[in-house]
Amino acid sequence: MAARVLRPLPRLKPFNRLQVILQHLKMSKQTDSTAEVLLEKRGGAGIITLNRPKVLNALTLSMIQQIYPQIKTWEQDPETFLIIIKGTGGKAFCAGGDIRAIADAGKVGGRLAQDFFREEYILNNAIGTCKKPYVALIDGITMGGGVGLSVHGHFRVATEKTLFAMPETAIGLFPDVGGGYFLPRLSGKIGYYLALTGFRLKGRDVLKAGIATHFVESEKLPALEKDLIALKSPSTENIADLLNSYHVKSKVDQEKEFVLDEHMEKINSLFSANSMEEIVKKLKQDGSPFAIKQLETINKMSPTSLKMTLRQLREGASMSLQDVLMMEYRLSQACMVSKQLSLCLFPATDG
């Protein structure tokens, strides 16, 4: 019996070409100005635009479900050399996940809390492992889910309008979206301080803390984006060089001292304790105006969230991003169960 002759794989090429054409047609629909997220290809760049300016570009499950497959497609596309993500409206890059929708779903026993966090963290991991250079233009408010869409990428460009915070301990949660990975890796104990107190960093301080990689004036971002798109088959180094050229020309607050500089010695000492009880004890013993202010802030936070966050960062310091996100998914579900239980027991309280 004669052996079967397999047809050569190159015959699949026309189908692949068709897939690419269909993908571009699909993407053209996503440039509708009313869509929650706009996905488009310009030059050698894939561009993601968060498009919910009235709610500070808060992230929804639908947006996540559109962004993730598009990143994966661009990652495999030989004609896509970088990915740019930005927000519309001028006030925010992304102020976080759409917590209201998640809370409302939780009240009626919906699956949104499970699906949202799972798919959000899968997206965060995809950004952290993306093979194509990923440039986040974090102009304006960047908190919670917005941090997850930016901080794990290759490049994060802050402006004088950037406002960064991880405020979760104030609402009974924890700094998720990979906070357990990137926060303990910041210089000294800055990450622990930011996580536990929800302290807000503004403008160039976001760069000085190690969260942003570059600083460019907000009004220069359209020109920067245009130049990034115009790069011909750029390498990561070419992209870095272009970002650096804009960065060195940015003079806003250039001479300004890092907002936490004068407190770094105390932050490194006071927030190095192994437990929240020890941190509180150290702050009380220190008694300085700075320490007293931190005590006042911590006393307003959820005690459970504080303990959970400290352990999250201590364990995350030696874990991979993927393992941290798996840990955080389990924590998110425990928090949601806890919140649903409290809603059942205390229906009059505001979640």
From TrEMBL:
SUPFAM superfamilies: ClpP/crotonase (SSF52096). The keyword Hydrolase applies. GO terms for molecular function: 3-hydroxyisobutyryl-CoA hydrolase activity. Residues 46-339 form the Enoyl-CoA hydratase/isomerase domain. It is found in: Mitochondrion. Belongs to the enoyl-CoA hydratase/isomerase family. Keywords: Branched-chain amino acid catabolism, Hydrolase, Mitochondrion. GO terms for cellular component: mitochondrion. The lineage of its organism: Eukaryota, Metazoa, Chordata, Craniata, Vertebrata. This is 3-hydroxyisobutyryl-CoA hydrolase. Pathway: Amino-acid degradation; L-valine degradation. Pfam families: ECH_2. Hydrolyzes 3-hydroxyisobutyryl-CoA (HIBYL-CoA), a saline catabolite. Has high activity toward isobutyryl-CoA. Could be an isobutyryl-CoA dehydrogenase that functions in valine catabolism. Also hydrolyzes 3-hydroxypropanoyl-CoA. It catalyses: 3-hydroxy-2-methylpropanoyl-CoA + H2O = 3-hydroxy-2-methylpropanoate + CoA + H(+). The keyword Cell membrane does not apply. One of its GO terms (biological process) is L-valine catabolic process. Its EC number is 3.1.2.4.
